[in-house]
Amino acid sequence: MTPTTDQKQRITDNPDTSPPDHQSQMPDEETAFRQEYIRKTNLRSRRIIRTSIIGIIANVLLAAFKAVIGLASNSIAIVMDAVNNLSDAASSVITIVGAKLAGKKPDLKHPFGHGRVEYLSAMVISVLVLYAGITALAESVKKIITPDIPDYSVVSLIIVGVAVVVKIVLGLYVRKVGKQIHSDSLANSGQDALMDSIISASTLVAAGIFLITGLSLEAWLGAVIALFIIKSGIDMLQETLSKVLGERPDAELANAIKETINSHEPISGAYDLILHDYGPNAYHGSVHIEVPDTMNADQLDRLIRKVTIDVYRKHQVILTAVGIYSVNTQDPDAIRTREQLKELVMSVPHVMQMHGFYLDRKEKCIRFDIIVSFDAKSRTQVYQQVCHEVQQIFPDYRLEIGLDTDFSEEHENS
Hints:
Blueprint: E1 4-6, H1 28-73, H2 76-102, H3 117-145, H4 154-180, H5 184-213, H6 218-245, H7 251-262, E2 269-277, E3 283-292, H8 297-315, E4 317-327, H9 332-346, E5 351-360, E6 365-372, H10 379-393, E7 398-404
Parallel strand pairs: 3-4, 6-7
Antiparallel strand pairs: 1-4, 2-3, 5-6
Helix pairs in contact: 1-2, 1-4, 2-3, 2-5, 3-5, 3-6, 4-5, 5-6, 7-8
């Protein structure tokens, strides 16, 4: 087993998560950064609430207008469009509630904060979209079986046209803000608004065809659009569920964290980075670093403290554990052996990486870890093949080869 140095975390009044408090008194620079991070977190919550309130007001007004027009013109499509606007308003309410709950301070029962509530609110919104699509499809099918003759007026069509423009602008704005601040709830609400604009536009198309040809295609267009809404709801739900289950970290973020770690001398490599997502912009993680075998405990302690603070300062990621791989620096033969073994190991199909190599001549032991791709039919068989081929070259040595999981590695020949 590779020794691990655990970093203790102290819970503070930070509404999401708090940086590791490695020093009894943080330097002025770190204290200022902590305050700035809290300010940005609070600002994010306020932007979510403000954007959602705008959505609520716009959707309630649109729903009222469309309901009146739809009932007056006997148009099921316009009435269902009004219902969709109400569902959008409900989505915005859920987004606000989710943001408020996610902003609660960490407590004894939830020491990592409540950020994942936002994923739950995004899931609820996805279900609402899915329900709206199924309801719209059912109503459209009913109207296909027992059609009604719509009675459109110029005023009603102009209002619906204006509503289309409003929904497009609102949807693009809400989705843009959601992506900027990494809020799935807002992004889903924005996407839902854009889908509603398509529904409204289809109503205008159906009205135009009816006024020109006398052919009513409203119910058929409603059914087609309903299917698209159902597909959109399923996609949003799958995306949110994937985040709840736990996805591999973003490659750009993972590489940036490793680059930050490797910038600290005398670290020669950062591996096995694992990031646990506790809500938008709330990551806790662990990593292994390669360091010279000449470092003592005090030097390692000071190095790890610097690394954890720097990673948090630059990436807002709390490293709760930093493991150590010692690297041969005093034995030239060991260094040559490392290169020889790396060439052998990397020639085995599906081996993505070899790291953490150390040769202990006194104990007659060779240890290193390998990463085997998930594309391998059997990762265990690949591991056993590596062990067998290395043992043939070094029959007198005890092997300690670890099989690591591909959590964040992006290239085959690291």
